[in-house]
Description:
Shape: globular
Strand content: 15-25%
Number of strands: 9
Helix content: 25-40%
Structural class: alpha/beta
Number of domains: 1
CATH superfamily: Alpha/Beta hydrolase fold, catalytic domain
Amino acid sequence: MRLAAAVLALAALPALAGSPDLSFPDATRDQWHGHERHRFRFEGADAWVVVPERALSGNPWSWCLIFPDAFTERCAAPQLVSRGFHHAFLDVGNTFGAPAALARLGRFHDELVRRGLAPKPALIGISRGGLFAHRYAAEHPERVAAIYGDAAVCDARSWPGGRAVGRAGKGSPADWLSFKRLYGFPDDAAALAWTGNPVDTLAPLAAAGVALIHVVGDADDVVPPAENGLVVAERYTALGGTIELIRKPGVGHHPHGLDDPAPIVEFLVRHAGAPAAAAPPAP
């Protein structure tokens, strides 16, 4: 009887019931901010998943699209793992959320869901990662629970273009050239006329109930809030979407995150921590 009771008790633990299969070929393990990390290759690129000590029911996860080791303790991911989230990364390079990168990210998402992670992760878009996170969500709104954008690029005309209407940002000429090449734009005019920027593709996210939290520094002259995060907040609110905006008075582009990221953590746990219905695989 005691053995039977013990088996039933173990079966009731979320971390032991339905744990994801992370046995990738040639995977190695190390530590990431005090948590076990599984490192492996996916389609020839570096990838990893950090495992919580005890996963929440349904195996929710956060997914940093670029800069996973920048200001990490300030940007919520280790705290989410402590709360029961898995945390993932796939290195698709400095590709600005271009179509080829989004396709690979979609296949990575499919693989992790197939292996047992929740169908709708919380995306983390730091700086230019805003293009990755918002572009992925606009392409697959039914496959994203929430987005945390931190000093996030939401309009390529602002950064790297430096050509937004207000022209408040410095831009980055070298990155602007790379952006045009990766997207296949023949010239500036085509890139500036593009309607796929995050500020212009919010309606599908609002319709799907994707929750947004954006952290902006009021003195950011690299990714000016008035051309990026504040535009998203205004337009998403008008669409009826769920969005929380955290402003940092007098703070520039750095440091990312918050001295105490608890508000970000609580937002993502609330909106991405519960089990969700399965999403269809990417086409």
